[in-house]
Design goal:
This protein is of the alpha+beta class. Helix content is about 30%, strand content about 30%. The protein is built from 15 helices and 29 strands.
């Protein structure tokens, strides 16, 4: 399997894409004004204790206080085991105003602040130092038992007293000397952090690497075929870093100096856009639908265009197997965390269910983030969880729609049209003015003109007042404005410049000088030409603007007003 890491550094944003066999499987985005704080170490102040939740809120100098589970408090943090056990059995023993060293393990999310722990970890390229925990661990991705045994022996030999070590995947095949050198670096780093922790809280004690160097440290291994970056300064720093820690990888780093967008060149932009789509098509013709909610994520599998050849159960199995692999990729790509429910197409044979479940578990093995597949419920739904660390891709690249407020739906043109009628009646009843200007979306205007035109006439006759409609494609379908019209100049100002798709009330004033069959109308000094309209001179018409050339426009007649000029517009 070919593996590539592509890095785009531009316009105050860094993006890291991971490709496997040219398929986008992971994307990380960090903006200069929204840098990740996961991995940062702070000296904070306990601001609030929640005994009923076994938790505390810690001020670490961010916009929101950090959330600390008391179960995440390490006894070595305090140096006094009696105090530690007092905290564990009595949350109130953790005092408000107490200063405590914590590390961020989860980003702030929605209305929640970042989550922190006192179980500090200092990651290097080959080792992770655990200053407050006596533990030795070997990466599960190192599969050969002999190599695991060798690395564990080295870890036991070099482990500092009172501290722990985790041997990372990149340490496979590395000598004791290399691991020992990195350990010395991490120990010195911890001493600097302890020294700075004497400052008053809240204070940042250690800032983790930026996204580019996190990618180099955590993802750039021997299994990666190439690492491409479009920033010369960072390229030079990466080469310098690798010269010390991994010289064998230097030849795999490439500087991208073409004038084109690096993500466009590697066809990532298009794939990134698809990663935000609810519907994902499978190669067979089936598709999956991904619905992300606040509580959980639901994934539905459908056969779509795929109808198979012979047996329906085989068709369903093939679709589900293909979907299982794609679902694992999408979860990883979109960085979806929390509870995930997958509704595969119903399978009656238990052996088919097992095949699909095994395929899903196998595909999830490529995911570095911890996932747990619980199993299939009596309803045939697959339950699984994935650890939340960062904000999901949709939260980074998208924001909640101000019109639908995240529901994914807006009001229909018919519903808005009825709201407009009710609002018009309110203005007729409660305002003394006699003329009103209404600007609405083109689709809403279409509904009013076709189905509710009699209602508008009834309102005008009942209250002896006038309505002038302007339909614009530039106004949102759920929005509309109503305001009194003072005089002709005011009306013209309200109409403003015309755009293609606008629907307006225009007065047909004269023949077209170049074609006597055509006529010319005006709206707010905007000239509108109409084909075959010479017989409508002196009348008002509702028209749709089809083309705009500066202050000149081409219009299509929608309706001829029965009233004359004086009746329609008496300013």
């Amino acid at each position: 399997m070919q593996s590539e890491i592509i890095v785009d550094v531009s316009f105050g944003e860094t993006r890291v894409a991971v490709l496997e066999d040219k398929e986008l499987v992971e994307i990380y985005i960090e903006r200069n004004d929204q840098q990740s704080i996961v991995g940062n170490i702070y000296k904070g102040v306990v601001e609030n204790i929640l005994p009923g939740m076994d938790a505390a809120f810690v001020n670490i100098g961010q916009d929101k206080n950090a959330f600390l589970y008391l179960g995440d408090i390490n006894r070595l943090e305090f140096g006094d085991t009696d105090e530690y056990y007092e905290i564990k059995t009595n949350p109130l023993a953790l005092r408000c105003g107490q200063e405590i060293v914590v590390q961020v393990i989860k980003e702030a999310y929605d209305q929640k602040g970042p989550r922190v722990t006192t179980n500090i970890t200092l990651p290097g390229r080959y080792l992770v130092l655990l200053p407050n925990t006596e533990y030795i661990g070997i990466s599960k991705r190192i599969e050969f038992e002999e190599e695991r045994t060798r690395l564990k022996e080295i870890a036991c030999k070099i482990k500092p007293d009172g501290m722990g070590l985790i041997v990372r995947t990149a340490a496979e095949g590395k000598s004791e000397e290399v691991l020992k050198n990195e350990l010395e670096f991490l120990k010195n780093l911890w001493q600097k952090i302890k020294q700075k922790s004497k400052e008053s809280a809240p204070v940042l004690l250690y800032k983790d690497y930026d996204l580019v160097f996190k990618a180099v440290r955590d993802m750039f291994t021997n299994q990666v075929d190439r690492f491409v970056i479009n920033d010369r300064k960072k390229y030079n720093k990466i080469i310098e870093f690798l010269s010390t820690y991994a010289p064998s990888l230097k030849s795999k780093v490439e500087y991208f100096n073409l004038a084109t967008n690096i993500f466009e060149y590697f066809q990532i932009e298009q794939k990134l856009s698809k990663a935000l789509s609810k519907r994902v098509w499978l190669k067979s013709g089936g598709y999956i639908v991904i619905d992300e909610t606040e509580a959980l994520t639901v994934i539905d599998v459908n056969t779509g265009k795929f109808v198979g050849k012979n047996d329906v159960s085989e068709t369903i199995l093939k679709t589900n197997l293909e979907a299982a692999v794609e679902i694992a990729r999408q979860i990883r790509l979109r960085d979806i965390g929390g509870i995930i429910i997958i509704d595969f197409i119903d399978m009656k044979k238990p052996e088919h269910q097992k095949l699909v479940l095994d395929a899903l578990k196998e595909a999830l093995k490529r995911d570095k983030t911890k996932t747990v597949v619980v199993g299939i419920t009596p309803l045939g739904l697959v339950e699984m969880t994935r650890k939340k660390v960062r904000q999901r891709l949709s939260c980074i690249m998208q924001s909640c729609c101000p019109y639908c407020e995240g529901s994914g739906k807006i009001l229909s043109p018919e519903t808005v049209g009825l709201k407009v009628l009710k609002e018009i009646e309110w203005y007729f009843k409660n305002r003394v003015e006699e003329k009103f200007f209404v600007e609405i979306n083109t689709k809403v205007c279409e509904v009013l003109r076709k189905g509710e035109v009699d209602r508008i006439k009834e309102l005008q006759e009942k209250y002896k007042k006038k309505i002038y409609l302007k339909a614009s494609s530039n106004i949102h379908i759920n929005k509309f404005t109503i305001c009194p019209v003072k005089d002709e100049d005011h009306y013209m100002a309200l109409c403003g410049a015309l755009s293609e798709g606008d629907e307006v009330l225009a007065f047909v004033e004269e023949e077209d000088k170049f074609n006597p069959k055509n006529a010319v109308g005006y709206v707010n000094q905007n000239r509108i030409e109409f084909d075959d309209a010479s017989d409508l001179i002196g009348k008002y018409i509702y028209a749709k603007v089809e083309k705009v050339y500066g202050t000149m426009s081409k219009g299509k007649i929608l309706e001829v007003c029965e009233e004359n000029k004086e009746d329609v517009k008496e300013f």
